[in-house]
Design goal:
The chain has 343 residues and is mainly alpha-helical. It has one domain (28-339). It has helices at residues 2-24, 29-37, 41-50, 53-66, 75-91, 97-109, 113-140, 142-145, 153-182, 184-194, 200-215, 223-250, 260-271, 281-293, 298-327, 331-339. Helix 9 packs across helix 10. The longest helix is centred in the middle third of the chain and has 30 residues, at 153-182. The two termini are 14 Å apart.
């Protein structure tokens, strides 16, 4: 219990610090309000309606991983799993939604929990990998757009740095997955030695989940499977970029679609910071991207960031709560579901 409170305190402190620097950038609250009310209402409503589309494309990609365990997985359950997982992550601390998502689908479909968890770890690795590839393409194409988008050297340096960090994290995660898959027994033996200090019950539980997790990496066995999954990952993220392009257009910020790559990459990094509901991390990185990359007024960048985060939170949670209401479940039942995997 004490450890939980210490962790929660540190997370809340980090969130407060990030929010402080985000809010401090505002110079004129009247300007913020003017920017917020200067929108094309029809495009804004269209963006609202299309917010859950990424849950659909993520579900399609996830189905491709799960068919190696069960061929007739219901697409609705994958969509619902993504929706309730994001809802829990938005509203409860600890990013427990990352566990709720695979465990929800595992229960609905009768799939092994560790297997489902393994596929979600693969998803995260490929999310980072995909955006790193897109960022690399953006940076390499600089001569083609240098006259239209003039970035300061410091901004390019930060993009290169975050790109390297992100790619390194993705590659490390992929290497660990590959080691577990191709050197199963040796990897499990090494892990068992690391787990010796833990109680026997927790040790056995983790080892069982690891066995199922390794089974969830079956798609690595075929190059065709791997390339197909990479293609689906690009579908997910190019769709997310299209949504942001439409959202900014609704606020009369006409940005070329290709130029959104570094902004989306930065928001992904900010969202990965373990703050409740992405608050603080997403806001700071979004504002930096809008001001440093596109030269948008800080007041406008503040307003756009607040609204884009609020739209994603409200629409995702609305979908999530409709699904929970339909199934007679509560948010706290989902929280217990996620906590059930903790040693």
């Amino acid at each position: 219990m004490k450890k939980t409170w210490v962790r929660l305190t540190l997370v809340l402190l980090l969130t407060a610090v990030l929010l402080y620097f985000f809010v401090r950038s505002v110079k004129d609250w009247g300007e913020v309000w003017r920017y917020l009310t200067h929108a094309n209402i029809w495009l804004f409503l269209l963006a609202l309606l299309l917010t859950p589309v990424h849950l659909m494309t993520r579900g399609l990609r996830w189905k491709y991983l799960l068919i190696h365990e069960k061929k007739d997985v219901r697409y609705y359950n994958l969509f619902a799993g993504n929706a309730v997982g994001f809802t829990v992550s938005f509203l409860l601390p600890g990013r427990i939604g990352e566990l709720v998502k695979p465990l929800y689908v595992a229960r609905k479909e009768g799939i092994r929990a560790g297997y489902s968890l393994g596929t979600c770890l693969v998803e995260r690795a490929f999310d980072i990998f995909t955006m790193c590839v897109l960022l690399g393409a953006f940076l390499l194409a600089k001569p083609l757009y240098a006259s239209r988008l003039q970035l300061q050297p410091a901004t390019y340096s930060k993009l290169y740095l975050w790109g390297i960090v992100g790619l390194s994290a993705a590659m490390l995660l992929l290497v660990v997955c590959l080691l577990f898959y191709f050197f199963r027994e040796k990897a499990l033996a090494f892990t068992a030695r690391l787990l010796k200090p833990l109680p026997a019950k927790a040790n056995d539980k983790i080892v069982k989940i690891l066995h199922e997790f390794i089974d969830g990496l079956k798609f690595f066995h075929s190059l065709g499977n791997l390339l197909t999954y990479i293609g689906l990952s690009f579908v997910v993220w190019l769709g997310i970029m299209a949504w942001y392009w439409l959202f900014f257009l609704a606020y009369r910020v006409a940005l070329p679609y290709f130029f959104l790559i570094p902004y989306i990459f930065l928001t992904m990094i900010g969202a990965s910071i373990p703050t409740p509901g992405m608050v603080g991390g997403f806001h700071s990185f979004s504002q930096f991207g809008l001001t440093a990359i596109f030269g948008i007024d800080p007041n406008q960048a503040f307003g756009l960031t607040v609204v884009v985060h609020a739209v994603q939170l409200v629409m995702t949670c609305l979908v999530g709560f409709v699904i929970l209401w339909k199934e007679g479940m509560t948010l706290f039942q989902l929280r217990k579901l996620g906590e059930s995997t903790e040693p």
